[in-house]
Amino acid sequence: MSIRPVLETRRAVPTLEGAGVKLHRAFGFADPTEADPFLLFDDFRGDRPADYQAGFPWHPHRGIETITYVLAGNVAHGDSLGNAGSLGAGDVQWMTAGRGILHQEMPTGNAAGQMHGFQLWANLPSALKMTAPRYQDMKGADIPEVIDDDGTRVKIIVGGFWGQTGPVDGIAAEPQYLDVFVPAGLKKRFKIDTYRRAFAYVFDGSARFADASQPQGVLLEKEVRGAEVAIRDLSGNRTLVRFGAGDEVVVQAGDQGVRILLISGAPIQEPVAWHGPIVMNTQAELQQAMRDLRNGTFVRPPH
To answer: Which of 12, 48, 168, 239 is a Cys-bridge partner for 26, taking CB atoms 3.0 to 4.6 Å apart?
Structure first.
């Protein structure tokens, strides 16, 4: 077994998206290779409806998959193909945009006004960029959860883990998407196939992540100020942890336990031409997508 080194830790950044939704972005719209095959990860949560109720009105997608996971509140959605529905607490939607879709997502809080969800964008390889759009809507009750004797809990959204397989059928990147809770003070090892890129997102509690070069497992960020290097503990909410190569991630939970999303996938390693919610391989393909949007053929199947 080899421990995956911690390449980087950083806080998610406050961002406005959609029609003015306040959220935190862990990565996206910068270097598309840093988390390949994943392009963007957003954490949208709040207890003030004014911060999220404007939602994400009609917008296009092409060339990617979007994965929405709701923890609190609801997200109503509809699209140009006539699909409509609602995601509640614990539910997951895996949308393959493929050759093109127009859709909207409108969050509403629960009875206490709370809204919390995540959205992950996964790239599609060139061979699947123009595949037919499809949805996989999964109710929380259909997502398997395995509970270890020590109280560790893992919800398996996609991929296999501890003898269980998640209900989502990922069509690209062989993804694994786990919602993990580790009780206070426990150290756990999670195996991840060596060919995958992997990251963790800490969204509740705190943890230390063992590093091959730092056996004590401190989650740190270095800040360089002139000739002085300060070390700052980043354990806690809304923290992205990017891992290097290896076959396991080691997590030691803090005093209150920790809840993380542990996500991995096979890198696509193809050129990326990216404009907003449209991700293609070349500028020519991106320009064609823009023309399709203008002339109303964006969601039509190719002839």
So the answer is: 12
Residue 277: inside a domain, yes or no?
yes
Residue whose C-alpha is closest to residue 65's, from 29, 94, 89: 94
Is residue 301 in a domain?
A: no
Residue closest to 207 by CA, chosen among 237, 244, 168, 177: 237
Residue whose token pair is 């705190």: 206
Which domain covers residue 29, as residue numbers? 6-295
Check: CB of residue 134 under 8 Å from CB of residue 64: no
Asked if 255 and 248 touch (Cβ cutoff 8 Å), the reply is no
Q: Which one, of 270, 242, 26, 264, lies nearest residue 124 by Cα? A: 270
Residues whose CB is less than 8 angstroms from the CB of residue 132 and which lie 6 or more positions away in sequence, other chains included: 98, 99, 301
Asked if residue 53 is part of any domain, the answer here is yes
| Dihedral Cα 265, 59, 44, 160, nearest 10 deg | -20
> CATH number, domain at 108?
2.60.120.10
Contacts of 181 (CB under 8 A, 6+ apart): 152, 153, 154, 257, 258, 259
Is the residue at 303 inside a domain?
Answer: no
Confidence check: pLDDT of 104 > 70: yes
Q: How many domains, in total, are found in the chain?
A: 1
Q: pLDDT tens-digit profile of 5-30?
A: 999 999 999 999 999 999 999 999 99
